[in-house]
Amino acid sequence: MVPVKGYVDSSDLLPLAEHVKATLKKLSGLRLIAPTEPVLSSKNVRAKQVTLGTLFANLFRDWYSSDCCLFGGGGIRGSRDYPDGLFVGDLESEFPFPTSMSRVQIQGELVQTMMQFSTEYHYPNYGGYFQVDDRFVYDSKTRTVVSVAGKAFDPDQFYGVCLPTPLLLGMDGFEPLLQAIKSGKVVADPVRDAMSCKEEALMCLISQNLAAFFSLADSSGDGKLNEEELVTLVGSKMAAKMLTAGIDQDGDSLVSFDEALAFSQTLSRKRSEQTGHITQLVYDLSEADGGEVTKEELVKNFGENAAKEVGLLMDIDNSGALSIDELKVLNHMHG
After folding, report:
1. How many domains does the chain fold into?
2. Domain region containing 287
3. Alpha-carbon span 79 to 93, nearest angstrom
4. Contacts for 273 with CB less than 8 Å, ≥ 6 apart
5. CB 107 within 8 A of CB 79
6. β-strand 130-132 against 68-72: which pairing, if any?
7. Domain holding 224: CATH number?
8. Are residues 229 and 182 part of one domain?
9. pLDDT (mean) for 170-187
């Protein structure tokens, strides 16, 4: 570590630093959701369905184009009411950990077993107590799922389920899910994002409040965001460059409101198109390498974290490698 005592504030950088701090303070205080009735709340999230849990589950369900979202209450940490609505700064207290989400295909019977386990295991203070979206209905009295995606529940149907990635790796000791993974009953549909839950929730809510965020970030008032303004908004120069590259349509290295709006409207469609992308890449790699993909090849092509998740979900016989037959089974189930 380098000691900073004795350094004098730079007269050139100080105004910029103060401007950035002021803008970030404004962003933190920007309201994402107006006051609601009933009041948004994350209290007792490990023991019952709460309004903020429903909100977040809805966001993740739609972000991942899933049939439903099952989100462990232990991942929502604020434990408070929001009578004045939800603000940007509130997401930090609700999502303090960099947890990511994944989508998998799970048969209805297992979804029901997972709900039973979630609501009864170590109740009433279990981090795995599921918060569900508003199109998913579970009857705790009869211990049955009533509907998924707004339609009557079918125990034989495979559903696209969005859930925290750590659950797939053993978090909360979710035995029904872990046993199903080991026995090949969880079908790989590895749509996931490097972003954390907090970042994904913020992206979704920014899309719904795009005009307010754009106006606040546009400090020059010229109707376009330059790199410096984007850095203030997203927090890093690299992220700003990536956003500009993805959003800028006319090649002026600036982001106009119309370009930002078009980008926002296509997020969900693009995510849907990513379905099975990693699965197809692994399938192609397997064909090229003679019918099997080793752990080393997965790490080399997809990175260690993604390789671990893909291997865990797709290695049905626990051989440590992915065979062409395993991939054909998965592709068939996707079709």
Report:
1. 3
2. 277-334
3. 9
4. none
5. no
6. antiparallel
7. 1.10.238.10
8. no
9. 83
